[in-house]
Amino acid sequence: MKFKNNSIALFGTSADPPTLGHEALLSELTKIFPKVITWASDNPDKKHQIPLLKRTQLLRILVKKISHPKLELVQELSSPRTIHTLKKAFQLWPEASFSFVIGSDLAMQVPKWLNAKSILSKVRIAIAMRDGWPISDVQLAKIKKLGGKIEILPFTIPESSSSKFRERPQKILVPKELVPLLLEENLYGLADNRK
Fold first, then answer.
1. Do the Cβ atoms of 188 and 165 come closer than 8 Å?
2. Could you read off the pLDDT of 43-76 as tens digits, one per residue?
3. Which molecular-function annotation in GO is an example for this chain (predicted)?
4. How many domains does the chain have?
5. Residue 181 forms part of a structural domain
């Protein structure tokens, strides 16, 4: 699977915190898209443990670690609402064709997005399969019914969720480059659970 030169993968994440799964996803996206843009944002359906500014700092460390010329953190795209993110993206890259990347665990949320039909008319939904999160034909049909164009990405992301880390912080769940900051500021209580 290869995309045209004007294709941009957009991957917003709560990065609460970024995990090995985020690292794998971003790395895989750089193999098939000419440009990959990521940012940290607040998810209106989640309660976040640490402030957005700190989560952005963690994501920036991860992007620097991956250090791929196709990958860029563009924090100005951050918004709790996808429709606002896309408005900014179209202003920054008016000639681009966008694929909005989500994990298979979030596919059921797409039809519930604010202005879902409008969003789906403007971008493709690129779904990255996550271990332990199969996607059903019913979920795909709901997206398609709203006019969504779906691409299932040709890779699977290992099970390594931010929520699992928040429940029981362990260094093995996050990229090692994040550990110094997590320990220094005792983010998520990692310094209390030195494992």
1. yes
2. 877 777 799 999 999 999 999 999 999 999 999 9
3. nicotinate-nucleotide adenylyltransferase activity
4. 1
5. no
